Amino acid sequence: MATKIKAIYGTKDILPDEAGSWLEILSVVSRVAESGNYGLIVNPVFEATELFARGIGETSDVVAKEMYTFTDQGGRSLTLRPEGTASVIRAYIEHSLGMGSGVTKLWYAGPMFRQERPQAGRYRQFYQFGIEAIGSLEPSLDAEVIGLNYEILNQLGIKDLSLEINSIGMPSDRKVHGEAFADFIGPVLESFCKDCKRRFEINPLRMFDCKQERCQANLKDAPVVYEFLSNDNLKHFEKVLKYLEILKIPFMLNKRLVRGLDYYTRTAWEFKSGALGSQDSVSGGGRYDLLSEQLGGQPTPGIGFAAGMERILMAMPGDVEGKKQKTFGFYLVIGDERFRPDAFKLAGFLRRLGITADIDYQVRSMKAQMKQANKSGFRYAVIFGEDEMNRGAVVLRNMADSGQFEIVLSDIYSIGNAEEFGEFIGKGR
Ligand code: HAM
């Protein structure tokens, strides 16, 4: 036998038993996004490496250590996207999406790629959905986006959810903070890890993001940007919090929260779930008011978030949707192979009405087929048996209560839609 090929380390197959929840995530996201007037955007999964280097920033771990970068046959440096925002803004600029509209509102879902160390809830290919609102600095827009983030996670029933929020200001705030921070850290810099020493030189805020306990302990009393916000930026943030109160969204101010990507300005937040282990961030987002300029567009503020779908699967209540999926399905049981064409015809007819129908392809006994119908969670079995077929009829059996009755096949074929079919079955009870 040939050797088996396995999935690449750090990737994950979503199998049919999780598919109900997976589809539920996408349907809740699209519904909530639509409720806020956000339109779908689908971007390529690879882009020019420079987009991420400039957009996400050379000092972020994502760009410095985690990108899947390769050279194509034309000698171009390309990168599998590690996140979605840079591509959305690239497309916003490239297609002048902002022309003539106030705020451009977009949502997306798709795979992202980061060469991180895999562990529970952390993959090298993972799926995100996200929302971006481009073109306004109005604080109520911050609260709208955070509100939609909350609404989606809430509707999905994410357990033990909490929102942490902060303002990390603008570069001018960080410059003032940087001086106080350097005075505090300078004398104890030696006690930080190698990465933090590098971060200290190029982007000291990144040190708050360090995963080493020793570095976090050293930072315990370090000054935070929040204390150095300009009046305008502090006012902006206070208004965001007021609007969150109007929406009745509970939050915790975490002045030490910084995000892992360099484009963030002002408002930044994360939703965490206590149902997850150490990788407890379900979603994260913030403002990126300088990103458009950095990517060669007009100065245009923006705000958005993204959530990890595998983590949501882990924090969602069990198989609710998986079970719900087939409540109105029909498994066609073939009593004799002579009736296969009749069963096959009915399966095609039901599917055209949008009703789930399945059929046995292994020429198994009736008993085995009934077992299969049960195991797959079908609500009804339609039995093509000798006696009934002689009368042009089949037996419809309710799998839950074993109640059954006969229906004439030609009556079924005169039905025009799924609703009529439901009524027809109801009458036979
Ligand atoms: P992020 O915080 O890097 O932000 O990622 C957002 C979410 O993606 C995380 O909260 C987590 O659920 C999930 N995630 C990240 N890395 C992994 C991984 N290796 N394995 C599994 N899940 C992961 C962004 O990506 C920004 N683009 C969000 C944003 C949009 N900011 C503004 N607009």
* Ligand list: histidyl-adenosine monophosphate
Oligomer: single chain
Radius of gyration of CA atoms, rounded to a whole number:
28 Å
Mean pLDDT: 94
Provide a short characterization of the protein structure:
The chain is an alpha+beta fold and 429 residues long. Helix content is 38%, strand content 21%.
Structure characterization notes:
The protein is of the alpha+beta class and 429 residues long. Residues 321-325 have low confidence and may be disordered. It is elongated. An 8-stranded mixed β-sheet has the order 1-5-6-11-10-9-7-8, sandwiched between helices. It has a 5-stranded mixed β-sheet with strand order 13-12-14-15-16, sandwiched between helices. The chain has a 3-stranded antiparallel β-sheet with strand order 2-4-3. Helix 1 runs antiparallel to helix 5 and helix 5 (139-155) packs across helix 9. 38% of the residues lie in helices and 21% in strands. The chain contains 17 helices and 16 strands. The site of histidyl-adenosine monophosphate (HAM) has 27 residues, from strand 6, strand 10, strand 11 and helix 11.
Which short descriptors sum up this protein?
single chain, 429 residues, alpha+beta, 5-stranded mixed beta sheet, 17 helices, binds histidyl-adenosine monophosphate
Blueprint (SSEs and pairs):
Layout: H1 16-35, E1 39-40, E2 46-48, H2 49-55, H3 61-65, E3 68-71, E4 77-80, H4 85-94, E5 104-113, E6 125-134, H5 139-155, E7 161-167, H6 171-185, H7 194-202, H8 213-218, H9 231-246, E8 252-253, E9 265-273, E10 281-287, H10 291-294, E11 302-308, H11 309-315, H12 320-324, E12 330-334, H13 340-352, E13 357-359, H14 366-375, E14 380-384, H15 386-390, E15 393-398, E16 404-408, H16 409-413, H17 418-427
Parallel strand pairs: 1-5, 7-8, 12-13, 12-14
Antiparallel strand pairs: 2-4, 3-4, 5-6, 6-11, 7-9, 9-10, 10-11, 14-15, 15-16
Helix pairs in contact: 1-5, 5-9
Bound molecules: histidyl-adenosine monophosphate.
Histidyl-adenosine monophosphate binds near residues 130, 281 and 305.
